[in-house]
Amino acid sequence: MKRNRKKARISQCMIVKNEEKNIERALSWGKGIVSEQIVVDTGSTDRTVEIAERMGAKIYHFEWIDDFAAAKNFAIEKAKYEWVALLDADEYFSEEDAKKLLYYVGELQDKAYDAILASWVHLDNEGKITAVGTQSRVFRNAPGLRYVGRIHEFITSIDGTHFHFVDAVNELSIYHTGYGKAESIEKIKSGRNLRIIEKEIEENPDDYRMLGYLGDEYFSMQDLEKARATYQKSVDLMPFTEDFIDPIRTAMTFGKYLDILSVDPDTKEEDFFKIYDKALIRLPREGDFDYFAGKYYMRQANYPQAQKYLKRALDQLEKNGLAFKSMFLSGNIKKVYEWLTTCCYNNGNLAECINYSTMVLKADRYLLKPFFLMLTAFCLDEISGREGAASAEAVAGFLGQNLYDFTTIKDRLFVMRAAMQAGYKSLVSVMRETFSPQELTAVDRALAADKNINQEPGRGDDTEA
């Protein structure tokens, strides 16, 4: 085993242009992990090359010809080790996951695998996850493996042999920062992607994949009318089974199309589900379609139907996993639990409301709306007189053990304020007993000040719930 790992080395490659703000991080994750770092510059006018040289990377230059596959294949040709890690400059592995790469390539070196699948985690400008996809960016350095496609290129076997992946989506994550608002605006302004896609479609007007990517460009521009029409054209040209080249592209086309329909107040139920049904025919194990169906019904305030589809989406994710699936759903799990909290509360499923709100609050315990609904559910259960209903003391114990730190006045005050807003008088009494007399004096003064502020003319109630 040790012998295999010694000979399994990694060449880190990337193509870049004007990436001075990203290049240092892009090279840093590979330090001590990869055996060489290759940077192919396609025409930078900033300090990208200077920074990369200072960090010890090998620099090559490639004249840009509107062909991403050609540039990436040029980079691969420069690599001399057994495996290639080809991430973009706005992508990186965490320190922990980077170390795992050496283990993986060592284990796979003498086995019939060509590439490693990893999660592809999209981050916004605040570092929050917006979506989670699947990518293969680490692959064997073999003559028969190359990128194809001028844009939205992908690694594949070009010699007719079968391409074998090992699924590591639960162990490895590639973080991608290129979908932040500023970055998206810059890409739209450059017009580069749109120009290449339009050229591809001019040559192959019935290419449903490229039409899907064209729809994405319009979607990014917020031209939803053009995006919708382009996605519809792509859907009309798709085969009717999932036995085709690109399930990720197909899921993206349907997902974004359904997203547009879900937020349009004029979308009729029959029109939404006409597209939804076509999507399920092609990708029956995809969770995103049910996620958008739940989103559609949430906007209609149809909580029984929203709960049905949101739960079905989570079932699909649990049953079928993340590999090539559920990109939008997995990036919005917290939102799904928030919606299910609201659904269960409005549907009278108080126990489920408490369960889902607990999941949400474990991720962010200061979200007021799900906490308000949780406390209201506990309060209603107490008022019902149901045998086995939790007492306020038991609820306080549950909150202190699972969600809040009652050694801090901040958490105790947050819980008491939420209990007051929920009208949960017995819990308010229990929480008051957790304060010392001196603390209680200060707390009452603060609550009185809050009350006076909220009663000022022109001020309304900002409570999310």
What is the structure about, briefly put?
This protein is an alpha/beta fold and 465 residues long. 55% of the residues lie in helices and 13% in strands.
Strands, total number: 11
Radius of gyration: 26 Å
Summed up, the helix count is 21
Terminal Cα separation, in Å?
A: 57 Å
Describe the largest sheet: 9 strands, mixed
Architecture overview:
Helix content is 55%, strand content 13%. The strands form two sheets. Strands 1, 2, 3, 4, 5, 6, 7, 10 and 11 form a nine-stranded mixed sheet that branches. Strands 8-9 form a two-stranded antiparallel sheet. With 465 residues, the protein is of the alpha/beta class. A hairpin with a 5-residue loop joins strand 6 (115-123) and strand 7. It contains 21 helices and eleven strands.
Topology:
Elements: H1 2-7, E1 10-16, H2 23-28, E2 36-41, H3 48-54, E3 58-61, H4 68-78, E4 83-86, E5 91-93, H5 95-108, E6 115-123, E7 129-140, E8 145-148, E9 154-157, E10 165-167, E11 173-176, H6 181-190, H7 192-203, H8 208-220, H9 224-237, H10 247-263, H11 269-282, H12 288-299, H13 303-320, H14 327-331, H15 333-346, H16 350-363, H17 368-384, H18 392-402, H19 409-421, H20 425-432, H21 437-454
Parallel strand pairs: 1-2, 1-4, 2-3, 6-10, 6-11
Antiparallel strand pairs: 4-7, 5-11, 6-7, 8-9
Helix pairs in contact: 7-8, 8-9, 8-10, 9-10, 10-11, 10-12, 11-12, 12-13, 13-15, 15-16, 15-17, 16-17, 18-20, 19-20
